[in-house]
Structure formats: C-alpha cells, structure tokens
Amino acid sequence: MTVEAFAPAKINLTLHVTGQRADGYHLLDSLVGFADIGDRISASSADGLSLQVAGPMAAGVPTDGSNLLMKAAELLAAGRGAALTLEKHLPPASGIGGGSSDAAATLRALCEVWDLPLPETADVLSLGADLPVCMTPRTQRMRGIGEELHALPPLPDCAIVLVNPGVSVATPAIFRAMENRHNPAMADVLPVWQTAEALADWLRAQRNDLQGPAVALEPIIGEALATLATTPALFHAMSGSGATCYGLYADDATANAARAAVLADHPEWWVRAGRLLR
Length: 278
Ligand code: C5P
Description:
four-stranded antiparallel sheet; Ribsml_uS5_D2-typ_fold_subgr; Alpha-Beta Plaits; GHMP_kinase_C_sf; binds cytidine-5'-monophosphate; kinase; ATP binding; Ribosomal Protein S5, domain 2; seven-stranded mixed sheet; 9 helices
C-alpha cells in the first residue's frame, strides 16, 4: 500500500509575539494559511524505516534520523516499517514550515498506511511548535507556542507569490534579537473576510513581530520586501521567522506577472506563484 500526502507551505499571514514562557518559548498569536505550493511525501509499507529525497530542493536535506520527517515517523513506528519518499520543492529553514509540513504530511500518510488514528497535538508538539498547525493544513488561528489551534472559515480566493532571497534564517536567533516580547495580540474575534482586498486591508493593521529583527539581521529580507512592494500586491509581509516573504494578489495572472517581474530583477531568488488553500 502506498499513500501520498501534500505538504503545503505554511504562511504566517500575521505573527504577533505576545509574551514568553519561563522555558524561553514565545507566546504567539498568528493567522496561519497554507498555499498550494509545497513538498510531496509518499509512504509505502516496507520492512524498516527508510527515506529517499528527490526534487529541486533536495540538496543537503538529510535522509537519516536527523530529518524531522524521520523523527515523526519514529514517534509513530513502534517497530512498524515504511519506505518514505520526499519530493522537496520548498527551501529549507525558510519560515514557511517546510520541515514541519513534511513531518505532518508524513504522519498523515503513515497513519493511513499503518491504520492508526492521527496523533494528539501534545505528542506532535515535541517535534516542533509548527507541527500541530501543519497537521490540519487549512486556515487556523494559532496561539500558545503553537498548540492552541482554532479552525477559521476559508480565506477569500487569493493568489500568492512566495519570495525567498536565498538566506536561511535560524529561528532562535531572530527571537533572541527581539527587543519587545510583549506585544498586543490580534482582536479576540477575527473578521470573516469576503474578498482578498478585505483580507489585505485587515492585514495592513496587523504585524509580524519577527519581521523587524529578521530584516535587521538579514538585510536581504528587506530587499525581498521592497521588491514585492514594486508589484501590484494587495499586501506583502514576511512569513514566520523568514526569510520567505509573501505577496497577495487579486488573481493568478497578476501573481504570475509579479513572479516574472521579481525573477527578472533577481534571477537567483526562489520565487513561486500559486493560490492560498481555502
Ligand atoms: O519548535 P521549533 O523547533 O520549531 O522552534 C525552533 C526554535 O524557535 C525554538 O527552539 C525556540 O528557540 C524558538 N521558538 C520560540 N517560540 C515559539 C516557537 C519557536 O521561542 N513559539
């Protein structure tokens, strides 16, 4: 039996850092969406656990137990075996949850292959704070350190461009560089946005509190944001702790043209156009 699973890019449309726990982890309040741009996982019944990595972003991705995806598989295996493949399209360590989304998709696929219930949030949280939200790749509000999840109505139809200027960012360093860890949360009740324009208008009054520190540490992220600002994006910002930035567009044609324009200026950057998953 072979099961395939899509591991979509996770987009922190907002990321408010509202406090810090005694163990150092930060309290967040984030509107999380997913894009139809991502990695592909397959899991087949086999003896022992193995992983093969292919695809345009495969270089340097570990195939041993140090890969988060293998840690996720081991969490569930209890002696069971599976041959896993990862087709890597997302740049690693780039603020769009690549590793977490791969691990979550692996868990979804393995639960089908091994006929198991999906693991509880508390069990996957030990793999990473972004794991729980990636287990259910649809629009959610994420609070706590990533374990408090609230499903939201689908986002409006919206095209998206992802821009990674080629630097990988160490998340702990970005959190450490923050001057203020106690920022306001989002409103208690979020609006239901009917159009991409309404979503963009609302996003303009929100924040990614990691964006400032990330741009200060890696000025090229500021260049990615400035380049997105030259396109007809309804809104643009950084996702997660960076370095990937996103722009939202009214339709696919505008997003595709924006992608081409960014690539014309910066042929060495990773730039993809797609849609927000609804
Ligand atoms: O949990 P994960 O491995 O994704 O997080 C990487 C690092 O980012 C953590 O070790 C921590 O330093 C920081 N982090 C944090 N607060 C969060 C999530 C991550 O401080 N809510």
